[in-house]
Amino acid sequence: MKRSQFGLDLGLLILRLVLGGLFVFHGVGKFRSEAGVDGFIEFVASLGLPLLPAAAWAWAALAAEIGGGLLLVVGFLPRLAAASLVGLMVVAAVEVHAPNGFSMVSAQKLETIEKEWKKAGAEGELRVVPHGCEYNVVLGGMALALVCTGGGGIGVAGRKRSAPKS
């Protein structure tokens, strides 16, 4: 069964746009949140990651999210961009979300969400409810697929074409 190269390239473009766009949105959100980047650095410090100062880890995460996401969207260095996102998702899954289990939603979490929504109605604020690592595994798996396949032929880098034979 012969596959259409255009269909494959189009599918990879869609994957790059969705995945890259999600990461850019998520990274930019850290700048726009009330806590800002300083709050994110404090959160990263609370994880106790080894080897580097918390600010270095936080800025590396932001570079992966925003920079890697933008590179995926435009199709430039897609394997490198995707590899940075795989690393980010491994750290997020293991260090942040795995202690909450695998699933994003459970009966207990639904109760917590309901209580938070009720509080939000009274106090006007909704906090994030901790969730498991399921979403990180999905995003990391999508990025790993791009590491394996590359970004396809639609994008800034495009497909390398051989010179015409004379």
Annotation keywords:
6 helices; about 0% strand; mainly alpha; about 170 residues; about 70% helix
Describe this structure in words.
- The chain has 166 residues and is mainly alpha-helical.
- The chain has one domain (5-149).
- The protein has helices at residues 5-32, 36-47, 54-74, 78-97, 107-123, 134-149.
- Strand tally is 0
Number of helices: 6
Poorly predicted regions: none
Radius of gyration: 19 Å
Assign an overall shape: globular
The count of domains is 1
SSE string, helix = H, strand = E? HHHHHH
Structural class category: mainly alpha
Q: What share of residues are in beta strands?
A: under 5%
Distance between the termini: 32 Å
Helical residue percent band:
55-70%
The major pleated sheet works out as: none
The whole-number mean of residue pLDDT values reads: 84
How are the SSEs ordered, and which strands pair?
Elements (H helix, E strand, L loop, with lengths): L4 H28 L3 H12 L6 H21 L3 H20 L9 H17 L10 H16 L17
Short synopsis of the structure:
By secondary structure, the chain is mostly helical. Helices cover 69% and strands 0% of the residues.
